[in-house]
Amino acid sequence: MLAEPWSRAFKGRWIEHTIESQALAGNPLGDPASRPLWVYLPPGYEESAHRRFPAIYVLQGLMGQVDMWWNRSAFRPTVPELVDALFGPDGDHGPDGDHGPDGDHGQGSPPPALVVLVDAWTSIGGSQFLNSPATGRYLDYLCEEIVGYVDARYRTVPEPGSRGVSGKSSGGYGAMVVPMLRPDVFGGLASHAGDAGFEWCYLGDLAVAARSLRDDYGGSFERFWSDFRSRPAMRRASDAALVNAYCMAACYSPETDGKVTLPFDPLTGRLDEEVWARWLSWDPLRMAGSHVEALRSMRAVWIDAGRSDQYFLDLGAQAFSAELFKLGVEHHFELFDGTHSAIEYRYPLAWSYLASRLQPG
Questions:
Q1: Residue ranges of the alpha helices (H) in the chain?
Q2: Phi, psi (5° rounding) for residue 156?
Q3: Residue 59 belongs to what H/E stretch?
Q4: What are the CA-CA distances from residue 128 to residues 53, 83, 94, 260 (Å)?
């Protein structure tokens, strides 16, 4: 789908809401508890007064907030346009108009579904969609509040077998782990280059962060955040690695009092094996074996990644697929030619896959 350099009329309808979250109220970072929430209604929703629809919840990657979905890149459609092109009549479903590799979707649009764009931004970059005493209760916010809010206002099918969750990168991580933790809420998932295989995807950034803390900030993350917030963000080459390291520590190795414990010594860079083990316990590769029944209950599991992913998340995706195969979890796995960047064209393939498998009945 080649995009024109301006917006066009949607075939379906996007509706913006503001949700007042009790789960995020008084969160440790002081981030807003009032969050935007966007819901897409496919064409024909209003006319089908008694029909109920599956819902696909879309999660963003690190440093994402929901308005970013409307950002336009040259020659590429926005994500809301991709949603509308997929579920609109005679929609464009990805490269060559293809629905995906299974060949069971037929031609034309997939079955209609609601699409929900979730905002889980934090002032340290993200939440990994987990409950953490250092960031807030983002798992509860998603599973209890957002899902309940949507079910109460729209004609969804209020059962896990008709709800899917998808995302890329940190959003792909959320798409993998949230259904493992809450199979009572979600019955399908699609992960594009989700964080997995922590040794490969995180240790490189931890080394960059440790070096920058040593050379630029006297071993202090407090000094980094003070500097970072006093100037244009991402101006220094190490900014992204430092944000990533701290954010992940806040999600994977917080203390009960909200203190963020790093998995390395900020002065020497030496890995703290005990804290690192806490991180590894949140790796989807390690989690899968303890959540077998949840994974087997999924109606749809889609895993993909670009085979040249800059963060080696193709290795994580491949290893997660192998683990699912070992556990007897039916799923679709694909490595495609690409990197971690500009892969939004893959999203409609997974949404179509989810929509076809999350139908009522």
A1: 79-87, 138-140, 147-153, 170-181, 198-216, 221-228, 239-252, 273-280, 284-287, 292-296, 313-326, 347-357
A2: -85, 175
A3: strand 55-59
A4: 27, 23, 28, 15
Closest listed residue to residue 122, CA positions, set 225, 212, 33 = 33
CATH class of 13-196+284-357: alpha beta
Cα 225 to chain centroid, rounded: 25
- Residue found by looking up tokens 């909200």 in the block: 258
Of 205, 195, 193, 269, residue with least CA distance to 237: 205
Q: Parse the chain into domains and list their residue ranges.
A: 13-196+284-357, 198-280
Task: Name the maximum alpha-carbon separation found in the chain.
Answer: 64
Least confident of 98-107, 160-169, 216-225: 98-107
End-to-end CA distance of the chain: 32
Task: For residue range 155-206, list pLDDT tens digits in order.
Answer: 999 999 999 999 999 999 999 999 999 999 999 999 999 999 999 999 999 9
Q: What is the pLDDT of residue 8?
A: 79
